[in-house]
Every structure is written in C-alpha cells, then in structure tokens.
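Usage

Read records sequentially. Each one opens with the input sequence:
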Amino acid sequence: MHTLEEWMTAQLVVPYLRHCDLPVRQPWKYAAKRNLLDYLLVYVEEGTLEVAVEGEELLLGAGDFCLLQPGTVHTLAGITRTTTPYAHFDIFYHPLRTESFATLPGQIDLAPYGRLMQPRLDGMPGVRVPVKLSPRHPERFRELLVGAIERWLEPADGLTRLEAQQLAMELVRQLIRDHYRPRQEAERRGPFSPDWVTPYLSYRLTEPLSVEELARRAHLSPSRFRCLFRERYGMPPHRYLMQLRLRYAAELLETTAYPLEKVAAYCGFADKHHLSKAFKQAMRVSPGAYRLGRR
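and closes with the structure output:
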C-alpha cells in the first residue's frame, strides 16, 4: 500500500472511545511503566505533566497535547496539581474492539492480546505523529477532545454516544491532516522501522502473509526486507507470524471454551489438525492437554 488512500481503504477509520475522564489531581505518578493496546490522547489544561517514552522525557505545560500510540511503553507523572482531560480510543475498526481495554501500570508484555492492538498512525504512508502534538488549530482541537469526553461521560444512551463518536471522528481527521507529509516522510524514513510490524501482523492473523506487501510498506525490496527482519527479530517473517498465531491460540485455550475448530479459525490455521500439529511441535504438548493443564 503506497498511498494514504490505499492504506485507509484497507484500514477503515472508525474511531471508538473506550475510556475517558476529566481528572483533577494533586502531584501523582504511575506506579510502573505500561504498554498500550489503543491510543491515549491527553490535554494538559492545568499544571505540568511529565511523559517518559523510550528513555526520553518530555515536560508538557498548560495548553499542550500528547498522543501515545499503541505499543508505546511509557510512564506519566503530574509534577504539579494537574487537570488533564484524556481519552483512550481506537482509530481503526476492529470487530473485537469491545474486548480490548485500557491497560494498567505494570502491563508491558501484551503479546497475548496482540490481536487487539491497534495499527499505529506512524504506519500510514506519509504520516508521522510525535508524542507532543502541535495542532494547526489547537483551540478547535481542544474543543473536539473535551467535547467528546464530556459526551462520553454523560449517562449512556445512543444519542450521546453517537455525538461523542462523531466528535472523535473529526478529532482523528484533524490529527491525520495535521501530520500528513508524504514527501518529507519519503525522504526521512529510515531503511527499516520495526514499530509497525507486530501490530500489523497481529491484526491479520487470519490473512495470508505476503513478504512482498510487507516489503512495500517498509519501502524495501523483498530480499532486503527479509534480511533486516531476520536481524531485528531473529527469524523470518513467516515464522514470526506463526509465533503470534500460537500465542493467540494459547490465550484462547486458557481463557475460553471454544472448540479447536474455532480456535484454529480465529488464529489463522487451516483447520484443527493444522493447529494441533503446529501447537504440539512448538509447545511439546497438544492443545487439549495444554488447556487442561491451565484450568
């Protein structure tokens, strides 16, 4: 997918607000780092917020916005008394979106929930979104965010939730528009940025893997992509995808009573026999025995 249009045709933009709040807090901080399955957008209305992302610390003051994308390990801390409206939300449609959740401090390894992780905006052609946002129209951006949060916090009914989602759609539209720079992105994108790989594959466990398609997304030849992928993950793409499928299968065996046929279908295996063979080879135990041992 070389263009933004092609990407958005494959990934439907249908925002879904999961959890919102308008907290006013005395100085505070996370008890531990956490990872994200969805997006977290925070507006600093009052006070000073410290955001630590992958070794980099940012201080945000009144009027600043920050966006943390899926797969971002981070910590947050209110250095002073803060008022920080925030929203956890999906941007792209996922049929299992109601099963996803806002993670808690301490939740780092999200591999068992990989199928629920949202694609990153940074994976879109020509789009690069920093943690600290600089909206072209910050006042309008604030109005959309706070308005969506306020509607979401009202007593739930079809109309208020619809209004909240409509405001979220406009918020996402402005977010993408403000950060769409196709020429600049093509010039500065490195030879291989792996951030999008795991969410992209986890989102497509039931689809056939095309190394050519992955290489096009990375702006590389297939042979170069295979080489860099192996350097980064220690295995070829097809084997990595198999690992993700098996992790998801193990999670379903532990947490559901789905028959093997359904587990196989959800995880991208041809049938239960294919699942059983791959599972036993990797785990040294059959799916049925694994399920019994975890109950």
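Summary fields computed downstream for this record:
- Residues 204-295 form a domain with the Arc Repressor Mutant, subunit A fold (CATH 1.10.10.60).
- The two ends are 43 Å apart (CA to CA).
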